[in-house]
Amino acid sequence: MRILLIGATGMIGRRVADEARRRGHEVTGVTRSGGEGTATAEAHDADAVAALAKGHDAVVMAVSPPRDGSEPEGPLLAAGRGVIEGTRRAGVRRLVVVGGAGSLEAAPGLRHVDEPGFPEMYKAESLAQAALLDVVRAEAGGLDWTYISPAQVIEPGERTGVYRLGGDQLLRDAEGDSRISAEDYAAALVDELENGDAIGRRITVAY
What top-level class would CATH report for the domain 2-206? Predict the structure, then answer.
């Protein structure tokens, strides 16, 4: 499979690239700077995305909201729309989006981001990712899309290849924790690219 990976040098992006290449897939990495052997493009530039995506089998968007103190929602949604439209123009049907956990349901009718005690420093980013999910659901018609939310905590760790999949609810283990290593998240994402079990919906990955 030929995969265009937008955001290839972030914590999750580089692990997705490593996982896909380990399995024999061809990965074209894309970043804003074009460093570390990647192509150069802005995710919000649909024409640039289309030119790079042409001839690929799938596009993966692993773009994080800005973390420089600026308002994150506008840039993230612009990136999402650019990737959706660029993927469509390139004639590529498969799109997988690296999402956030804040929009997951922590209790009936209550999103994780709206829970009392949710860390204020992550709230704007989480709300931006929730808005991106809304954009994907509303505007990615005609594409075989999947939005993959991580657990509440995702960080570098061990690749075990063992994980649980869920839908719109936050997954917790027997101790009440919700976590996944970035390595196992990447394994789950590439599994979904290969099997296509969650087309047209959001899933979540956790232990």
Answer: alpha beta
